[in-house]
Amino acid sequence: MAGAVERLKVISIIIRLVLILFMIPALCSCGSDESGMIARVSRVAMGTLVEISAVGSPDRTKPAIEAAFDEIRRVENLTSFHKVSGLTQINDSSGETHVKSDAELVDLIRKSVRFSEYSDGAFDITIGSIGRLWNFSGESGPRLPDRSEIEKLLPTVGSKLLKIDSDQNLVFLPVKGMALDLGAIAKGYGLDRAAETLRRMGIGSGLVNAGGDIVAFGKKAPDKPWRIGIQDPRNPGGILAVGEINDRAVVTSGDYERFFMDADRRYHHILDPKTGYPAEGLQSVTIVAPDGVTADAMSTAVFVLGKDKGLALIETMPDVAGLVVDRHGSVFMSEKARHMFELKQ
Ligand code: ADP
Ligand code: MG
Fold first, then answer.
1. pLDDT in tens, 252-289
2. Fewest CB atoms within 10 A around its CB: which of 56, 242, 246, 323?
3. Helix, strand, coil shares of the chain as percentages rounded to 5?
4. Can you tell me the mean pLDDT for 9-27?
5. Which sign does the torsion angle of CA 171, 110, 125, 118 carry?
């Protein structure tokens, strides 16, 4: 099963990349004047293929893209669930002692707790203990846990249990076996940091694409905004909708990237913290927000909340738009998303 899941993951990444390349055909072209030049570099990072595009002359874009990849690596070293990281230090001390952590990591954990509050617990980074049982992101691949295993760990899930001292940067997981998993927000943070690094290095227009999750700023060319496509969750390579974005993050959570089938049932990696089982009802959720952290956390939150509650939450947030695909493949958009996306079907 592990091999099949890995294969599906790689196929999905390639399809997404091809899709984005298709949507931004002029991405690798180099014009003679500076404003028309776009440099693009792709590398595996954050568990996917990351492609960084920057507009400008090579002497400017090359070091900026390198610095952006370094920044992504730094964020991974802080937030990884499986490799030794700032986060695993906290998890390894659950039920025992508080951990003095990095201010940046503590800040991301606090933001995560805030998203749990907004979403009434649909988004919750304390899902780590139960996530480990399913093992969707682990090397050995996923498995279907016994109901009793899940129920035993449900008391370790709940952001309200977390003890955080922001002044001293201390984090304590008071229940033995509790574990934080930043898998639903760290990629968005990595995108934000990479884009910020490009800007700091003098890039005025750029696009960071981590397997279809995107942060874009500026314009591809003076009169050309960045154009992106949203993948059809049941037709790899098919485009559901297209839109233009400027200074925005676009992140999709779906049931089609990390999943396995058992007795005709699809089990995927977005878990409902109330049950410990994969959230039911939707195929995918795409969120557009001013930053990657918000778009990433909200895409997971809305996926768990479902269509009605999810869209209602989006409408309460200024500057956030969402597109939801339900279990039948029907598309629903928030008010703002209707002005952003053109449906292709
Ligand atoms: P992707 O990683 O495919 O971009 P998401 O952003 O939706 O998708 O994140 C899913 C990951 O987040 C899971 O692999 C797991 O690590 C973690 N996760 C699963 N369910 C939840 C949840 N309800 N709240 C917070 N994190 C979750
Ligand atoms: Mg997410």
1. 999 998 999 999 999 999 999 999 999 999 999 999 99
2. 246
3. 40, 25, 35
4. 43
5. positive
Q: Which residues surround ligand 2, an ion (CB under 5 A)?
A: 184, 253, 296, 299-300
Residue 134 CB burial class (10 angstroms; 0-12, 13-18, ≥19): buried
Q: How confident is the model at residue 241 (pLDDT cuts 50, 70, 90)?
A: very high
What pLDDT was estimated at residue 24? 40
CA of 316 to the centre of ligand 1 (A): 22
Q: Whole-angstrom Cα distance, residue 22 to residue 5? A: 25
Strand partners, 326: 282
Measured distance CA(79)–CA(151) in Å, rounded: 27
Which of 129, 232, 126 is closest to 184 using CA atoms?
126
71 alpha carbon to ligand 2 midpoint, in Å?
A: 20
35 pLDDT tier (thresholds 50, 70, 90): low
Q: Which ligand is nearest to the CA of 253?
A: 1
Nearest ligand to the C-alpha of residue 138?
Answer: 1
pLDDT of residue 345: 74
pLDDT confidence tier of residue 14, bands split at 50, 70 and 90: very low
How remote is the CA of residue 323 from the centroid of ligand 2, in Å?
14
| Residue 290 pLDDT > 50 | yes
What's the CA-to-centroid distance between 57 and ligand 1, angstroms? 37
